[in-house]
Amino acid sequence: MEPIQLSILKFAGDPIETSANPEDTVVSVKEQIAELVQVPVLCQKLWLHEASGEQVGRTQPLRKKRMDDLEEEFQYGWQIQEVRSFHCPPQGVVECVHLSLILLCASSTFEISDSQLNVRGHRLEQWDVCKRFLENPVEYMSALKKFSDDICAGRLSSDQVELAQNKIEEMGHTFSARYFQRVSEFCSLLVRWVSCALKLYHAVNAKDGPLELEDDFQLSVYADGSSLQLALVVDPEALFESMEDSMEKKLEAIAALKTLGAKFPDRALRELGTALISGYAELRAAALDAIKGWPANEEFATMLHNEIPIFYREPCPKNEVLAALEHLGPQHPQLLKRVATGLNAGNCQRKVSPKKKKGKEWKPAEEPDEEFCLETFKRLQLEEDPKKVLDCLAYAIFHPATRRANMDIICQALSLAASRDYDTAVHTIVGRAQFADEVEEPWVRARAAEMAMCFAVKEDEKVLSILRSCTDLTGSDLCTLAKCYAHLSDGETPFLPILCADLPCGQDRREVLQTIQEMKPVDNEAVIKAIMRYLENWEGLLSCFGPMSMLDACRVMEQVAISDPSPLHKAYTQLLKALALRLARPRTNDLYDLQCRRFLLDKAQEKGGANDEVLSCLASGFSSSIEPIRRECLYFFQKVAKSPDADVVQVLLEVLDDDFSSWSCSTALEALRSCCDAELLETRALRHLLKLLKTKSNSLVKCAALKALHAVHNGEVTDLAARLARQDPIDSVRLAALQLLRGQEAAEVSNLAVEVLCTDSSETVLLGALEVLTPLSAAGSAGKAAVEAAKKLLIHPSRQVRLESARLLGTASHDAASGVTVVTMALEALQAPAKVGSGDLSHFGLALAGRSVAFREMGRARAGLPAEPKVLAASLADARAAVSLAQQLTSNSTLALKAARALNAALAESGEGPMEAQQACDALAGLGFDEPVKHELRQVAKDGIDTAGLCAEMDASAKDGESPGTFRWPRRMVLPTLPSGPSLAAAVTEKGWGPYLRQRGGEQMVNLERSKLAMMLDALSFPLSLAWLLLQEPLVRIASGTLHVVVLGATSKAEVRILEDSDYWEELGRVMAPQCKVKLHFVGPEISAESADVHQTQPPCATQFFQAHSDLNSSNTICAVFNGGFGNFVSSGRDELFHSWLQDLTFLADQHVLCAFFCANDYADLKGEVAVHQLLGSCFALRPRQNPFAMATVYSGEDSSEWFSGNAFVYAVCGFERSARRVELSTAEVLQIAQSDHAIVHEAPLPVRLLESERSSSGSTGVPPVSTVGEMKPMDGGWRFEVPLADASCMQAADVQISDTQLSLVLEGLRRVVPWPTPVDSASARASFSARSCKLVVKATSQ
Question: Which of 317, 522, 897, 1233 stands the most exposed, by the fewest C-beta atoms within 10 Å?
């Protein structure tokens, strides 16, 4: 086709002649014009002045298509709901919706009339009318989409168009899609829709007249022949609107202002000024380039000065600003002052625009602002009068906003300016220091002195006299003045006495101290006194500044006290006393406590030890009513290094003489015992201690005094201790006296202990006496009296006393020197019960059962000693009598259990069969006891287990802080060997142990289990319980591969012992072999030795273990917790275990790891654990239920109210429900939920798929698992994550959790955690499913 010749008329000048192809768009013509006349495309508008109706009509199809395309964007009902939710809508929203309704009066599908819209009144009343028409979003949006057809059909009238145009005029600047982008996305679309509708109306009703050309229309639409005459109109409004658009639009608009901005400088410089202080380097560079395209003009420079905020008021980039100002007005009177303020305004560190949007970070500057300002200043000051330059600098130096500013750069500028006119600099800058206080603030005078150091000549008397007149300053201002004077003069400073006076109590004490140190005074008495007064205010110094504030003073004293070192010694003594007194007093601020403790020990060691004064200060803490303070002071009193001349005994005796309280005396006595040897105690403190024992009545003090005398062997001490052991009314004192006598002669101690056994009724004292006699008995020194006394205690009500008596007798009876045989003792003791009973048959029965245990202990074979059959026969007789009484007293379950256990143990020790014990237990079980008691009796009858003995043995062997656990079989009992044979998965069923034992090993397995009691079943319960859970098809689906099993909370006494002493854990691998391989990991804090699969880890165990093993995840790992006990606080009231598990439980839920939990009872452990998971929002894959492979042994407490059986109950969780999670859990909340008996359980999606990702990666077809797909894409203002799916059914069990830092996605049982590239606003994030592309889409906006 032939080109079209274009003639384009301008506002002034000759027309533009050019040509273009008919298929070229209008925007391409604008680009040609921009090259010819330097008018940016953004500002151009092309018009046909005399367009014919035919030309206008040719635009109709294109305008209709444009409107149809726009109507496709009205897709989502939430867009309308967002607008309808406005109670008081923003400006323009009511008018915009009303405008759309005016046009829709012509709709063929939307029923509305002009009269319904003709509402006069408040805009909220108009809004109520508009909202009624938006109640049906589908109908409203359908009318919008079909309105282009209504216009083409001629339904839209000229009256309606006129009403709409009048409404647009009323809206003014608010009728803009860009305006509504910040208010409502839907209203922004409505504005574009109205504009398209009106243009389409004019195309349909074509008339002759002017016509604006659309950028995307081809020229052929408008051309009637081979030529076309157009008019060019320059419109700056589009340019300024683009300054609020995207970064690309802003840069394009700024580039246009380079050529057009000078024609409307006020608006142009307002926009360019904003760009010059922008946080984006691209905008600043473009704005500077645009301004450099303008000619220099003082008026323009003034306008730009007014647009740029003062650097002190709003920190902003300065380089481009100053370059632009210098270009527009190099001689402008404000330029040099502006440059001077940039010298100490600091480099820009935060994003601050004229709209004061704070909190954003600047991009790193290519050149520091202050350095650029300095270079600009050096260039400009050469052309200015020195006085003006110094006045500008003075304005910047003494501006109130620069009080804490960095003055390094401006000092360089001041030095440069002063070199041109020194006298004026002294007058202008330093002269500000000598003005009266009411004229200048103190900091201004100090700043003037500080600036003098930059340029003043040394020993300049004029400057020095000004400085000497400022002696009224204090604090940091005085320090600045003193440093300046010392810098300018080598003579004696007049400020040292003032500093000394200000040091003890001034607000800036540490700075004053540092200034004195810099002045280096030697042997100055005033300084020495000032430092000592400073140190006396130790309490405020330690609380506010810590011990370094006092140590600095001591170091200054080292520099000052040269001739006489005594002040230095006093200073360090004061330091140590202050640290000691701080420990001894109650504290509210612990910020410096740790530092004070370390300083006390270190400095005492460094300075030769603490003297009596320091020790007395520490000992003053013994009188504190707060126990931790007393303990801490005692610890440091014992640990601190002591000087050779320190009299520790005297210090502690003074505390005893003060007799402030019982706790002060007892603490001092404890310090005396630990810090003094026996010789020192005997020579210096013996009289004092004996006096305390004779005069004091307080048990705490007397016990402490007796302990302090342990190492003293003195007849008077022995006599007094013996008297106290016999006569003191307090149990603890009698016991302490007995323990003191343990080191005395055997005969004396033995006689006293026997006397105590015969006369004392206190259980603790009796146990102490037995403890004293037992080693004497083993050595053959106990004698007949001791044996006789111990015999009488065999029926004591206390079980512990009976056992200790039996141990003593069991040792003494084998010693021929005692003159007594075990047989004689036993036969004589059989007559004793008649003397015990006084109608209390329960007590009598318990005594018989207890004595049976004692006889069994005495008669059993041990440590090379033979068994005594007659004693064992006596034990069996007592046990039978106790069982007989228990059958009569059916209300005493404790007696029944103890009698049954005693009979079973006596029969076993005597070598008789368990049949009699089984019959007795069956008879007792038939009585009216509670179910746990009956269960325990049946257990004894079936297996002959002495659970009470096992518990006592395991409890005794447990270390501090460790639990004996539920697997209570001592190491001395060897785990049975399993018979050879296959471990069939078919045998692990809901029916439990019976089918498994028979299929695993037949009758041989059953007989093995009976002969070894329940030990084997208890150990097998661990692997088989987990195997049973993994075989539950509705719960778990396992593919081939290696399944990692992490046993959390494992202990050396249970899970690890079974691993080391047997092959029981291999049963799990044998059962699961047809499906997968099993890899075991044992993790917990109560593990004594580590190996490749055993990991000793402190809580939080799971968190640390999974962080160290990144290859383990929710798709290849299951966690098992056997009898974790973190819910037991429901019964015990102790929540330490709960809090130690809490972080791990949260972590495992967040990671969607399948976790199996096994509990020992339902009334405490299970209730508490379910309550914890409910508050965590955990999703249950298996609801709580009984475990078919629970341990066979049941244990009960002394009163039978509590019981437990390992792995008795089971449940499993996987993932969590975000809406149900509590951010913080308290014990009280969990306890309340546990006691409510109403648990809200969230179900996990089933089945839980394990090892699916390994199977998929090894050659499967179809859609890959979630863990290997998904794409993160940037979008406008945030991020978009897309996951392709096989079909819509995949969304049925989908779980999407969104946080500010990551996205957690679970599909088809597989989980993936994807971090967001930048932090997002999770509250506004949305997830949706696109049926067209079959994708899950998650969108989130950046913070």
Answer: 522
